[in-house]
TrEMBL record:
A GO molecular function held by the record: acyl-CoA dehydrogenase activity
Name assigned to this protein: Acyl-CoA dehydrogenase
Species per Swiss-Prot/TrEMBL record: Linnemannia exigua
Keywords from the UniProt entry: FAD, Flavoprotein
Keyword Flavoprotein: yes
SUPFAM superfamilies according to UniProt: Acyl-CoA dehydrogenase C-terminal domain-like, Acyl-CoA dehydrogenase NM domain-like
Iron-sulfur keyword on record: no
Alphabetized PANTHER family for the sequence: ACD11 DEHYDROGENASE, ACYL-COA DEHYDROGENASE
Length: 573
């Protein structure tokens, strides 16, 4: 009898990493719908090659960046403060590759007009698996470039913008700061309070001598994840900066950065989901348990199918927002489509996309780890690092609660116009499907869900019921994401069916159309019931009061009792 050992007996067949773009029909199908055929044909070789790079050199660079993390050298050998950030050669190599691949430049060269953003984000999505978190500075670079393009002086455009879009070192930072009130009636050196007193500034990180421009680095943050990305606690004192745009327009002027970074977050979360689902499916083809491959096990199939459905929905929502961003950046902003729909709708949807995609990407990272069993829990597989890294998306650019309240703010500031625009957009996607028998149930589900969202907002959008509306802000935000994603899935399935009809002899296209229909219809099943819990159960008066009682009632009562007893004792002394 031969006993199993390290060298003899069962060895799990190793999952093989494939070219992501060639392996993922979801992404290809989305791009095919949004891009003219000529554009997709031209960019496909570039998307294929970036996947090959990511799975070879990119993976190796990422591993080195994780092993040799950034360090801070605060003092030199003579005790002089230098605040030198030390990064690895791998990090510097990522900077060179980002410039070479044009991951920012593609969006601003605009070779393909409004479709350039889609091309850029598709490439970024495939690039991120080998970028080792270098996508974070790229997102900020992209946002900074857009702000300067819109509001910068000609000098800024000549000296800074041109370097930002080539992804070379512009070595600048943007920040909000208070501006001295220039009005004659204001006291000397007085400043306005609140966000209305903020202006936007652009500053060089270093002066002409190479010294930090009024910046002191106190420490690098010891984060849960994203450890290859240097994140520091800074003190700004005496920084020299140039104002960007008009006085007190800082929050408005920086909003272009927020739109772009939130779309980046959606793209990054979609990319993470893509890697999780492709990895899980590849492992399921090779892992045998209970005498059958995982891909043939009913419970495992059901689990992975839910993951696939979430990835498909997130892909639709993400590229819908990307397409809008592309139109806003390249088309005349006075066109009714852009001015009255794209601009206000993107402002509403970017916080929704960011919140929803971030939450679901982290949930999927945990599910993916389980799908790999014990191997998923091993650091060597990279799933642990991926889980820690994707978690940052729920924190960066505003937590779930902060951005959910931002969604309410947008709807309140527009007097409900943003909500009406959102509903009209969803109904516009469904209009061609209303009379088609196979879509009646799905359309009805989305219509009922839209009515539920509108009713809840209108009912509780008063000063007296503000607390109840805020309590359900998360539910409303997730509901709006679920509904528009459902409409987009239905719209995509209808497009896919038309494509199959045109190519009736192609069995692969027919199969894709069937899968797209199943995905859309399954997403819309019981959508109204799901949303009812998300919104109403979490935002009714009884629950609000019960939540306060459950969380703090007993502690407050004990505190009050203790204070009373102490006061009684003190009176007797």
């Amino acid at each position: 009898m031969v006993f199993a050992s390290a060298n003899v007996g069962f060895k799990q067949e190793v999952p093989q990493e494939q070219n992501t773009f060639l392996e993922d029909p979801v992404m290809v199908s989305v791009l095919e719908r949004y891009l003219p055929a000529k554009v997709l044909d031209e960019i496909s070789p570039d998307l294929i090659q970036i996947c090959d790079w990511a799975s070879t050199e990119g993976v190796a660079l990422t591993a080195r960046m994780e092993e040799d993390q950034p360090r801070l050298r605060q003092y030199d050998s003579w005790c002089r403060r230098v605040d030198e950030l030390l990064v690895t050669e791998a990090w510097r190599r990522q900077k060179d590759i980002a410039a070479r691949e044009g991951v920012v430049a593609i969006a601003y060269e605009r070779k393909y007009g409004e479709y350039s953003r889609i091309y850029q984000m598709a490439k970024l999505m495939l690039w991120t698996s080998g970028a080792g978190l270098y996508s974070c500075p790229i997102a900020m670079t992209d946002g900074c470039a857009r702000v300067i393009e819109l509001n910068g002086t000609q000098e800024m455009k000549d000296n800074v913008y041109s370097r930002l879009i080539s992804a070379t070192d512009a070595d600048v930072t943007m920040l909000l700061a208070r501006t001295h009130d220039p009005s004659p009636s204001a006291a000397p050196n007085s400043m306005r309070d609140g966000s209305k007193g903020l202006s936007l500034y652009l500053a060089n990180v270093r002066d002409e001598q190479g010294k930090l421009n009024g910046v002191r680095i106190h420490r690098l943050k010891d984060k849960v994840g994203t450890k290859a990305l240097p994140t520091a606690e800074l003190e700004l004192d005496g920084m020299i900066a140039q104002q960007v745009g008009e006085n007190y327009r800082g929050v408005k002027n920086i909003s272009a950065i927020l739109n772009i970074t939130r779309v980046y977050c959606g793209m990054g979360c979609t990319a993470a989901m893509q890697r999780f689902i492709l990895g899980v499916k590849e492992y399921a083809r090779r892992r045998e348990v209970f005498g059958a491959l995982l891909k043939d096990q009913p419970l495992h199939l059901a689990t992975v199918a839910n993951m696939e459905l979430q990835y498909r929905a997130t892909s639709q929502f993400t590229f819908y927002c990307i397409a809008m961003l592309g139109r806003i950046e390249t088309l005349d902003n006075n066109l009714p489509q852009v001015k009255n729909q794209d601009i206000p709708l993107l402002r509403l949807l970017t916080p929704i996309l960011k919140v929803w995609s971030a939450k679901n990407a982290f949930a999927m990272s945990q599910e993916a780890m389980e799908c790999f069993g014990g191997q998923g829990y091993m650091e060597e597989t990279g799933l642990g690092r991926a889980m820690r890294d994707v978690l940052v998306n729920t924190i960066w650019e505003g937590t779930t609660n902060v951005l959910s309240l931002d969604v309410l703010r947008v709807m309140a500031e527009t007097g409900g116009d943003a909500l009406e625009l959102y509903a009209d957009s969803v109904r516009g996607m469904l209009a061609p499907l209303k009379d088609q028998p196979e879509w009646i149930k799905s359309v009805k589900s989305i219509e009922e869900s839209l009515n539920l969202i509108s009713h809840h907002f209108v009912t509780y959008a008063t000063l007296e019921t503000r607390n109840l509306l805020e309590a359900s802000a998360r539910g409303l935000t997730f509901a709006m994401a679920d509904v528009i994603s459902g409409a987009l899935l239905c719209q995509h399935a209808a497009w896919s069916a038309a494509k199959a009809k045109t190519n009736s002899a192609n069995s692969i296209i027919a199969s894709e159309a069937t899968i797209d229909r199943i995905s859309a219809q399954r997403w819309c099943e019981d959508l109204e019931k799901k949303l009812s819990f998300q919104i109403e159960a979490l935002g009714n008066e009884t629950r609000y009061e019960e939540d306060k009682l459950m969380l703090f009632g007993l502690a407050d009562a004990r505190t009050s009792h203790t204070t009373t007893v102490q006061a009684a004792i003190a009176s007797k002394l």
